[in-house]
Amino acid sequence: MASQARKGGVSLPERRNPKKDDDGVIARISQSQIVARGKQATSDAAFVAKKLLKSTGKAAWIFGTSFIILVVPLIIEMDREQQLSDFELQQANILGTSAGSAPPVK
After folding, report:
1. Domain count, the chain
2. Does 1 fall in a domain?
3. Residues spanned by the domain of 35
4. What is the per-residue pLDDT across 1-55, written as a single tens digit (0 to 9) for each?
5. What distance in Å separates the CA atoms of residue 59 and residue 72, rounded to the nearest whole number?
6. Is 40 exposed, middle or buried (0-12, 13-18, 19+ CB in 10 A)?
7. Assigned domain for 102 exists
8. Which residues contact 98 (CB under 8 A, 6 or more apart)?
9. In 38, 51, 87, 94, which residue has its Cα 20 to 30 A from 23's Cα atom?
Protein backbone atom coordinates (compact mmCIF):
# COMPACT_ATOMS: atom_id res chain seq x y z
CA MET A 1 0.00 0.00 0.00
CA ALA A 2 2.86 2.38 0.79
CA SER A 3 4.52 1.58 -2.53
CA GLN A 4 1.53 2.77 -4.55
CA ALA A 5 1.78 6.30 -5.87
CA ARG A 6 -0.79 8.78 -4.62
CA LYS A 7 -2.72 10.90 -7.03
CA GLY A 8 -1.67 14.52 -7.04
CA GLY A 9 1.34 13.87 -4.80
CA VAL A 10 4.95 14.69 -5.43
CA SER A 11 7.28 11.77 -5.92
CA LEU A 12 10.78 12.06 -4.50
CA PRO A 13 13.81 10.94 -6.46
CA GLU A 14 15.48 7.71 -5.46
CA ARG A 15 18.20 8.08 -2.85
CA ARG A 16 21.79 7.45 -3.79
CA ASN A 17 23.71 4.70 -2.13
CA PRO A 18 26.21 6.48 0.20
CA LYS A 19 28.66 3.58 0.05
CA LYS A 20 29.54 3.93 -3.65
CA ASP A 21 33.17 4.27 -4.62
CA ASP A 22 32.58 7.45 -6.60
CA ASP A 23 31.94 9.56 -3.48
CA GLY A 24 33.90 12.76 -3.17
CA VAL A 25 36.66 13.64 -0.75
CA ILE A 26 34.29 15.44 1.60
CA ALA A 27 32.00 12.42 1.81
CA ARG A 28 34.94 10.12 2.60
CA ILE A 29 36.23 12.51 5.27
CA SER A 30 32.81 12.86 6.89
CA GLN A 31 32.57 9.07 7.12
CA SER A 32 36.04 8.62 8.63
CA GLN A 33 36.73 7.25 12.09
CA ILE A 34 38.26 10.53 13.27
CA VAL A 35 35.08 12.45 12.47
CA ALA A 36 32.97 9.80 14.21
CA ARG A 37 35.12 10.06 17.34
CA GLY A 38 34.92 13.85 17.19
CA LYS A 39 31.14 13.71 16.96
CA GLN A 40 31.01 11.30 19.91
CA ALA A 41 33.32 13.53 21.97
CA THR A 42 31.17 16.57 21.16
CA SER A 43 28.05 14.69 22.13
CA ASP A 44 29.60 13.58 25.41
CA ALA A 45 30.81 17.10 26.19
CA ALA A 46 27.35 18.53 25.51
CA PHE A 47 25.80 15.92 27.80
CA VAL A 48 28.21 16.74 30.62
CA ALA A 49 27.71 20.48 30.15
CA LYS A 50 23.93 20.05 30.28
CA LYS A 51 24.15 18.02 33.49
CA LEU A 52 26.56 20.55 35.01
CA LEU A 53 24.31 23.49 34.18
CA LYS A 54 21.30 21.67 35.57
CA SER A 55 23.02 20.84 38.87
CA THR A 56 24.50 24.35 39.10
CA GLY A 57 21.02 25.80 38.65
CA LYS A 58 19.68 23.60 41.42
CA ALA A 59 22.52 24.63 43.73
CA ALA A 60 21.93 28.31 42.94
CA TRP A 61 18.22 27.91 43.73
CA ILE A 62 18.99 26.24 47.07
CA PHE A 63 21.55 28.89 47.98
CA GLY A 64 19.27 31.77 46.95
CA THR A 65 16.23 30.57 48.85
CA SER A 66 18.30 29.74 51.94
CA PHE A 67 19.84 33.21 51.82
CA ILE A 68 16.42 34.85 51.60
CA ILE A 69 14.99 32.78 54.46
CA LEU A 70 17.97 32.89 56.84
CA VAL A 71 20.16 35.92 56.14
CA VAL A 72 17.79 38.67 54.98
CA PRO A 73 15.77 38.73 58.25
CA LEU A 74 19.07 38.94 60.17
CA ILE A 75 20.18 41.91 58.06
CA ILE A 76 16.82 43.64 58.60
CA GLU A 77 17.02 43.10 62.37
CA MET A 78 20.59 44.43 62.51
CA ASP A 79 19.48 47.52 60.58
CA ARG A 80 16.60 48.11 63.02
CA GLU A 81 18.98 47.77 65.96
CA GLN A 82 21.36 50.30 64.38
CA GLN A 83 18.50 52.74 63.75
CA LEU A 84 17.34 52.39 67.36
CA SER A 85 20.88 53.01 68.61
CA ASP A 86 21.20 56.09 66.38
CA PHE A 87 17.82 57.37 67.58
CA GLU A 88 18.80 56.97 71.25
CA LEU A 89 22.09 58.78 70.61
CA GLN A 90 20.23 61.61 68.85
CA GLN A 91 17.78 61.98 71.73
CA ALA A 92 20.61 61.96 74.26
CA ASN A 93 22.31 64.77 72.32
CA ILE A 94 19.09 66.78 72.21
CA LEU A 95 18.55 66.39 75.97
CA GLY A 96 22.15 67.37 76.65
CA THR A 97 23.31 64.16 78.26
CA SER A 98 26.14 62.00 77.06
CA ALA A 99 25.26 58.76 75.35
CA GLY A 100 27.13 56.58 77.85
CA SER A 101 25.86 58.10 81.11
CA ALA A 102 22.52 57.74 82.81
CA PRO A 103 20.25 60.78 83.18
CA PRO A 104 20.72 62.70 86.42
CA VAL A 105 18.48 61.71 89.30
CA LYS A 106 16.67 64.50 91.19
Report:
1. 1
2. no
3. 25-95
4. 455 555 666 666 666 655 555 568 888 887 888 888 999 999 999 999 999 999 9
5. 19
6. exposed
7. no
8. 92
9. 38
